[in-house]
Specification:
Elements lengths: L2 H23 L4 E4 L2 E6 L14 E6 L5 E5 L11 E4 L5 E5 L7 E9 L2 E8 L4 E6 L4 E5 L18 E4 L5 E4 L7 E4 L5 E8 L5 E2 L2 E7 L7 E6 L4 E5 L5 E5 L10 E3 L2 E6 L3 E5 L5 E5 L23 E7 L3 E6 L5 E7 L1
Length: about 325
């Protein structure tokens, strides 16, 4: 064999290796374009063998990059834990929260002093719970009798919370009577700031909410006004400021990353809005779909069924939790 033959063979082998690598790299669906291009990893996070996903509802992260998933617990599961924790690489760490089985829904995290706390909305027991990162419950919030808005607790079913700069919290009564209430960080009722309806300043199924701090010194409240098929902007005292409707179908929640706003939309896609609140990317649009309840082999790679929660991790990639009864957690890894 001549040196030329040897080099040609090596080059061919290298080309074959590169081709195989490229083939492997392209087996996963690529969503979006330009600065918002993502490789799709469906079922990126999986629970331990003794636990089966139910509807995967909420997702949040802590200061160490650990990822927390809230789910309802699936049929046949041995464990009843509703909060699963994974490290930044997707390795299972621990689980807890059997008291929220069947109802774990909204999940958000806030640092208070040197500690971090989870806020869980349980739509089965109709409570908001504050817990530490090991699941120890600090308090649970029942319906706000003091508001005068409810005959009894059957009219109350909170879905998500938002954190005010004062330290107080806002609770969206998304599956109850469509009020948004303010409470202290200790769970004491303060006031009702927004009520039900379809007009400006009114909401229907305020499913998710978040305090937007993109403009320094001018925080505002963004509400996923899902029943009215829009996002709505408010002052922090509940005064209406405007609507966001472009690119919005049935928004479930909100998460910010610098100037970008991430919207998991129940009607089958993930939307990213820019600083002007206009869509810069719409990812994995599977609408219309009738795949809820179907086996996963019917799901279409690169297409979402019902995104319910989403969060940025590492300021770059996105984790999506879907409202499907066998659960699905997808990683969108930026290319």
């Amino acid at each position: 064999m001549t040196r030329r033959d040897l080099l040609a063979g090596a080059a061919g082998a290298g080309l074959a290796t590169m081709t195989q690598a490229n083939q492997r790299a392209t087996t996963r669906p690529i969503l979006g374009e330009k600065a918002h291009t993502y490789e799709t990893y469906h079922d990126w996070l999986v629970p331990p063998k003794n636990l089966a996903w139910g509807d995967t509802h909420g997702v949040t992260t802590d200061s160490h990059g650990n990822i927390y998933i809230a789910h309802t617990v699936g049929s046949g599961s041995i464990s009843r834990d509703t909060i699963c924790v994974f490290d930044p690489k997707g390795k299972f760490v621990k689980s807890f929260g059997s008291e929220w089985a069947g109802g774990a829904h909204g999940l958000d995290l806030r640092k208070e002093g040197r500690e971090e706390f989870l806020y869980i909305c349980d739509v089965n027991r109709r409570v908001v719970a504050k817990a530490d990162l090991n699941g120890r419950v600090i308090w649970e919030l029942d319906y706000p009798k003091e508001s005068g808005k409810y005959r009894d607790r059957n009219g109350w079913n909170p879905t998500n919370v938002a954190f005010l700069l004062s330290g107080n919290i806002l609770v969206g009564d998304g599956y109850g009577s469509s009020y948004i209430h303010e409470f202290t960080k200790d769970g004491a009722f303060v006031r009702t700031i927004i009520g039900p309806g379809n007009g400006a300043g009114q909401v229907s199924c305020p499913h998710g909410l978040w305090v937007d701090q993109r403009t320094p010194g001018q925080p505002q409240l963004i509400v996923a006004d899902r029943g009215n098929r829009r996002l709505q902007i408010f002052e922090l005292d509940g005064k209406h400021k405007g609507f966001i409707t472009e690119g919005v179908r049935m928004p479930c929640h909100i998460h910010f990353n610098s100037g970008l706003m991430l919207i998991p939309d129940l009607e089958s896609r993930i939307t990213i809005l820019g600083v002007d609140n206009k869509p810069v990317a719409q990812l994995g649009d599977g609408h219309p779909t009738n795949l809820r309840g179907q086996s996963k082999d019917k799901f279409i790679p690169g297409k979402f069924v019902h995104p319910h929660g989403a969060a940025w991790i590492n300021k770059t990639d996105i984790v999506v939790a879907e409202w499907v009864p066998q659960g699905r957690i997808t990683l969108l890894k930026r290319v």
